[in-house]
Structures are given as C-alpha cells and as structure tokens.
Fold this sequence. Notes:
The complex is a heterodimer of chains A (about 270) and B (about 775). Chain A has about 270 residues and is α/β, with parallel strands linked by helices. Chain A is built from nine helices and eleven strands. Chain A has one domain: TIM Barrel, CATH 3.20.20.70. The longest helix of chain A has 13 residues. The relative contact order of chain A is 0.15. Chain B has about 775 residues and is α/β, with parallel strands linked by helices. Chain B is built from 32 helices and 14 strands. In chain B, β3, α16 and β4 form a beta-alpha-beta unit. The longest helix of chain B is centred in the first third of the chain and has 35 residues.
Amino acid sequence: MKETKGIIFDIKRFAIHDGPGIRTTIFFKGCPLKCWWCANPEGQKTDPEKIISPFQLEENDECVKDIIGEEISSQQVIDEILKDRVFYEESSGGVTFSGGEPLMQPEFLHSLLELSKQESIHTILDTSGYAPQAILEKIVDSVDLFLYDIKLLGNEEHMKYTGVSTELILQNLSFLVEREQNIIIRIPIIPGITDTSENLALIGSYLSELKSISRVDILPYNEMSKAKYTRLEKPYELNNIVPPIDERMNEIKEKLEQFGLQVKIGG
Amino acid sequence: MNERVKKLREQSINAKPSLSLERALLLTDFYQSGVIEKVSIPIARALAFKYLLENKEICINDGELIVGERGPEPAATPTYPEICTHSMKDLEILDTRSKISFSVDEETRQLTQEKIIPYWKGRSIRDQIFEKMDKGWIEAYDAGVFTEFMEQRAPGHTVAGRQIFQKGFLDYKKEIVEALNSLDFDKDPEAHSKREQLKAMEIAADAIMILAERYSKKAIELAKNEEDSKRKQELEKIAEICSYVPKNAPRTVWETLQHYWFIHLGVITELNTWDSFNPGRLDQNLYPFFKKDLEEGIISLEEIKELLQCFWIKFNNQPAPPKVGVTAEESNTYTDFCLINLGGVKEDGSDAVNDLSYLILDVIEEMRILQPSSMVQISKKSPDAILKRALKIVRTGFGQPSIFNTDAIIQELLGQGKSIIDARNGGASGCVETGAFGKESYILSGYFNLTKVLEITLYNGKDPRTGNIIGLETGVPSQFNTFDELFESFRLQLNYFIDIKIKGNNIIERLWANLLPSPFMSLLIDDCIENGKDYNDGGARYNTTYIQGVGLGTITDSLSSLKYNIFDNKITSMQELLESMEKNFEENQELWVKLIRETPKYGNDDDYTDELMNRVFNEFYTSVNGRPNTKGGCHRINLLPTTAHVYFGSVIKATPDGRKEFQPLSEGVSPVQGMDIKGPTAVIKSASKIDHLKTGGTLLNQKFTPQFLADDDGISKLLYLIKSYFRLDGHHIQFNVVSADTLRKAQKNPELYRNLIVRVAGYSDYFINLGENLQNEIIERTEHMSM
C-alpha cells in the first residue's frame, strides 16, 4: 500500500459514542460544511491553526497558544489504531473516521481504511456525505458502517446553517442505500433549527423510504464545545439556545418512530 | 433490609471506636501469675489465650443472630501490650488525633500507667525489634525507605480454606493426638519442640470451645429473662448453636456463620494479626450448607440473607487495632482488610459462580458498610452476568467490590510452585495479595519506597531531607555520561536497601517465631498440625514473605524525565534540574512546565516511559524474588500501597517528574495522578506492560464519573475494559465513582458526609476519616477523569 499523509487534529482512544463497542476515533481536519452548532470547530479549517492553550501558568496572564492539527502518515495512524486492538476484540468495537470531513482527504482515508481491513478491524465512517460520488465509490467496500448526518431537508435552511446545499448529500445517501450499505443516520437536535415539526416530518418521511437504514440516532445539542470557539477566537452563533431536555428528546423520538424508524437518543 | 438489620447496622455505624483494656489487663494478670515461668513459650501463649477466653466479657447485642465481640462491646478495641505497649503519649495521640481516633477514658489511662506499662515496657516485641535492628536498618527506616509491618502487629496475612468449614475443634483435637502419637523421640531431633507446639494447639482448641460454651450459657440466661417470645426462641436457638459449634463441624448456614465467627474472634484475640482473618471464598465455602438448607426447607432465602447481614455487622463492629507511629501512617484506617472473595473457579477448574454469589452481592449492596471488604474473581469462564451485577454495585460509588482476575491469580500461584488444586482454591486478600487459602502464610513485611531510593541515588547516598548519608556513594550524578550509568547507580542503591530490609526481616521473623507463636492460628492453616510447627515458624504448607513496592508511577516518570530532558534531548542539565528540585521548582517555573507538560509520562501507552517502568519493575523483582526467608519459603514482591504512598511522599523532596516536595506518590501500578491523558485504554495498556504474573498482586485504580456509569451502556463498556485488562494478565482493578465536587463538599462539611465511602488504594474508607493530604490526592485523582 502506498504511504499517504493527511492532516488530523486528534486521535481519541476509548471513544464510546462513535459506534458500537470501544473505538478509536480519528479526527480529520478540514470540512466543506460550516454548521453553526459544529462540536469540533477546530476541524473546519484544512490546515493546522493556532488555539489558545487551556494550560496557563498562574502568574503568567499571557495566552499560551498551541497548534492544532498535524500532518501524519497513514502508517503512524494505523500504529495508533492497533494499540487498542484487544479492546476492539473484547467489545466488538473498532476504528471510526470522523472530523472534520474524512472524505475531504480521500487518498489518506482510503489508505487508512485498507490498512484497517487488512488487520480485520471494524471500520466506521462518520460523514456529512458532502463529497463527489466518485470518492465514495472508491472507499465504500472497506467501510463496515456509515454514520451519516442528516440535518435539515429544506435546501435554503441547509444553506443558511451549514453553508452548502443538500443535493449532493442526498444523492450520496441514495447511492449508499442502493449499494445496501449498513447505515445509521444521525440527526443533531438543535432547538428551533433542526427540531421544527416541519423538518422532522420531512426527514421522517424521507428516511422511511430508504431501505438499509438500520437506525436513526438523535443527538441532543450541548454547549460543551462553546469553550473551543473562544479558544479558536471564533464567534459562537448559538448563544441563546438551551439544550433540549429529556422529555423533548423523547417526544422527537416518538415522532420519528411514527415513520417506522428505529430511533435512539444519543449515539 | 429488615428492622432488625437496620437497627444493628445503625448501632454498628454509630459505635465510636474506643480503647478497651480488658485484654491487656487479663493478659498482664496471667503473665504475673507465675504460670509462664514453668512452661514452654508455646504453652504459655496457649494458656494466655485460654485465660483470655475464659475471663473476657461475653457480649450479646440486642437482636443479633450471630454473636461474639472481640471487646466488651462493639468497637471497644483491645490492645496487645505484648506486641506494642502504648505509652501515655500514644494514648493521648490515639484519643485526640483528628483521624482514626480511639477514645481513651481516664480509667484506661490510669490502669495503663499503673499496671500495663510497668510490666510490659521493654518486654514487648516492638521494643525488642527496634533494639535488635542495626544502624543501617534504623537509618533507612527513619528516612522512610521502607516500613516494617511486624513492628506493632502480628504476621497474620492469611485466609481460611474450605477445611475449617468441614471440621469442628474436636476433630482438630483428634488430629493433634494422632500427630502426638506419631512423634518419634528417638529419631526426630525436633520431636520435643513439636510436642510443645502440638500441646499448645490442643489448649488453644479447648479455649475456643470454652468461649463458645460461655456464649451458649449467656444466651440461655438472656432467654430466661426475655419477655418477647420470638426473641426468647432466637436466644434459645443461639444457645443451641453455640454449644454445637465450633466444637463440631457445622451442619447449617446459621451454624456455619457462627462457627466461622468464633474462629475469627479467636484469631484476632490471640494476636492483632494483619488483615484480621477472612472466611475466604465465602460463596464456595458456604454453598453446600446453603443448598442443603434450602432443599430441606429449614430456612428461607430471606432468612439466609438476614443471617448474612447479621454476619456482615460482626465484621464492622471490630475496627482495626489502634496503630501508632509509622504503622498508622502506612495503614491509616479502621478497616481491618477482611476481603470476602466471590466467584472464581472450583478446584476442578470449572466456573464457581453460583446463586449464593449473587445473594452475597445483594447483601454487599444493601449493607454498604466499611467492613468486611469484598471482591469478585472473574475468570475467563465466569458469566458476564456476575461482572455486570458487581459493576452495578461499583456504580453506587463506595468502592466495593473490587475486581480480580482469577486466571492471573492461578498463574501467579503456579509460578510460585503451588499445586494446581491449591492455586484454584486460592484468591486475593487484604488489598490485592495473592494467596493459597488455608495453606499459606503470606506475610507482607513492609512497603518499599522506590522513589526514595532514586532520590538518595541523585544525592550520592545522602538523604536530602535530613542531610544524613544513609546509602551507598554511587557517584556524583552530574558526572554521569549516560542514562545507563545513572540507572546502574540506582540499581546498586536499590539492592543495598533491599539487602538491609531482608536482613531485618530474617531477624524479625525469628523473634516472632520464638517469642510470640500463635497456636490457635496454627490449628487453622494446613499443615501446621501435621508438621508440629507453629504458623509463625513456617508450619504452613507455603511460607512467603512479601516486600511491597510503592510509587512505580512516580519513579517511572522521574526516570523518564531524567532520560528525556537530560540525556536524550539536553533540555536541561543534571545540575539545573537538581537545583530546581532543591528549591521546589519555585524559581524555575519554565522548567517545571516542561517537566509536567512536555515530558513523556507513564500511563499513556508510550513505550518510552513504559519500558522504564518495566526496567524498574524487573530490578525490584530481581533484587527480592527468591531470596530465602527463615521459614523454608522465600521473598517475593507485590505492588500496592494502602496509604503508604502518602507517607512515602511526605519524606521525599521534589522529584524530577515535577512532583512538588512532600506530595503523595502514585499508588499501586496506577499512573501519577492526573498524568494519564490518553484515557483508560492507554492506562490499561501501560499497566499491562509489566509481567503481573511474577508478582503476588498489583493494584490499578481507575476513576469514573457517575454519569459515565449511569446507563447500562456505560456498564458494558467498563466490562469490556476489565476483560481486556484481564486478557493482558492484569491482576486487579478497582473503581472510584464519585464526582470531585461531592468530595470537595465533603471536605468542607464532613459532618454532612459521614457515610461517604471512597476507594483509597486496595480498600474503601470513609472519606471524612482520611487525612487531608490523602483527601486532596483523591480529589485530584477524581478531577482528572477521562470520562
């Protein structure tokens, strides 16, 4: 396999919310979308960037800045992935490629998927689906499970809140469904934005038509990433939004279940 | 929990530990009676034991079903002046210290001064030990290089095997007669001393039967005056049971629990044995009686549970004997380390989990008390259900039960030369110590301060805290050209102190064997009767002496820092580093940040540091393992601290890893607090890079927030982590599940958190009873949580 390089901003071991079992999640840097609620804003820009360190000397008021994102070879990444093999085996876990958007670094992703498959490691691609179909075609056979984001079905709103149109995303989803890929849909529940009854009804009815969707995960909005925006010196647009309470999440779950979907709160 | 148990539990939790002179006064009377001058030492000890049991107060608490107190009432804790004669100052400290205090009344003080001290001063084994140790030993001990377990407590460190549940003391007497009859006075030069030992054991067997008979009489007496007809019947039943066991082998669950409890009282009255005593594999030992009782319909499941709960309370009523000096620092707790074992495998190798295992877990969860401690052994054959059940109790956050790897325990025991049957019947006791239950004396002789040895190496033999030269002069560190030169100096220094420790152990072991034999304990552990030899003198089938390494994480990070910053990357010089350490890094913040932040740390699955840990581990192992003791066995290592990591930290100045002066060391094989930043899988991978199977137990502490374990998914993930660690031959893992916030509140308002139990290191304790340093350490440990 050809040695490739890519840019990532984190490798998280013992990831337990990115698919089944105990997993290692590789965060690719760079994303074509700019979602207002993005939980990993450090994954948006393609190149390494500065971030204010959380580590301050007591007497030193000046901000210390770290660089986030590094170029790394696929071999280095696979070495890191293999470190937790015993945990994947015991828990039926594996590796999750997330980001950012992994499909933005197709060569690198392809090589990591191939290397993982050679080692019999279960692979997940966590994606926005926003990429040329040709790229998906190339990697589709070495992905065991897709975590596929659907946010808003109204194209205008999608443009407003994510910066891109829905067209490519929905086309690619159809492609994966046709290929009978194993897919879990993930919907971020952003109060007042993605949880409107109109949007939920549209998503519900759209998904109910698609075979091979094994489950729909609804992910409640949280404010945990707020601090990261400050550290990146980026504006945070969702200041007035309150995370949905459990009852509201249950309501949404029931609503989507009416479309014959299997729905889980959290991922 | 029914009303009876609730009441007994309240009573037990609220009983304020106090010092009771009952035992000390009776013992002194006996020793002054003139009897001891006419008989051999073993016989004198047995007669003293008998005198105690013939004359001590008999205490049956209202409503209880299992009877017998060590002192005159719950939490009235005896002293053992023949082992440690408390001075008047000791009494003052015990009474007034803020943690782990024992109230001492005026009468106790007066009698101590008038009767106890005048007779025992200079005679106690503690006095004799310190007198016999040479200068090198005393200097190392005072500097905190090691501790000495036997200086004020007796070598117990053992656990009941199944045999004691199948025999009565009449059976033991028969065995003794047989052994006496087979003595060959013509050919066996030891026949005479064997006869003395066996006669002493015979007296000890009589003594415990006398105690039980006295309880029986007391119960009859109470029954006579009891107006409540139900309680009257219970007391009559208690009387009947106490006149049957431990004289005869028990026949029912109730009899078995009472039988064991008399044995337990015998052991902890004869001497103040470390780790009290322990019924061992309780779900195995009790199971035949459990099954039979239920089949015959003589008792319901509810009643069995109630009996177990009453049994639990008996343990909680007996705080660990009052400790003073360094012993109080290394083991600062009321817990007396009885660790109930559940699960594991049967002696034919099949899975041992049964219905009773689950019932006992219910009892543990409901009782939620400090003592006894509990653990679950998980083998590759155990059903996930038992581990899940145990983890659901762990989630409630009082540190019990801890989780052990049966397959590792068996391999450790086999590696030490035990038979496969003895290995499968074994388990772990105390904190994490591996043993062949019912067959082995596995003495912990003292904690060993690995980091202190490195500190002394860095000062070329000098203890920088006191300025005294106490080690070898292995070279001026700033002149070392390579890391290997430095490490070689450390190795020499390590071996120097291990030699001192082992030399001391050999003397101390003989003192115990000769001066304070334990004829009662000798009845209980195979093959003391057969060998005609005392438990303290190598009578057991297996005799092991452990030295417990402490601070593996801190020394590893310190070595990593020296190697990385001085030799490999030339970030600083030895001189600059040592100067900064001397000043506690106060004048060199920049360097300190590099040490903390940019230096490879153990616990992150990074071979750079983990290989250094392995190197230290192997040096420690090589320097200790296989060195003979005086009982036909040998020395071995394990890795656990109880609270010694706090004490050991308090004698060490700042260390090369950036640890500030006098702060606690890391505990067990856990990473330095807050330095494991790659999550639990990385910690587990790092910790499994040492060969756990070469030890007699290691301790790994992990922490989780309550939120992580809130749902069953969290429990499953934890289960996978444990099974992975065990597949990598990890020995033990334990969990603290409590938020740092709660702990901080408890520190501020201890009175509101009297019931808050946390996992310390190898045991659980009431948070408010911990010293402030240890409290802070646990808060810090909890704050740096990965999840």
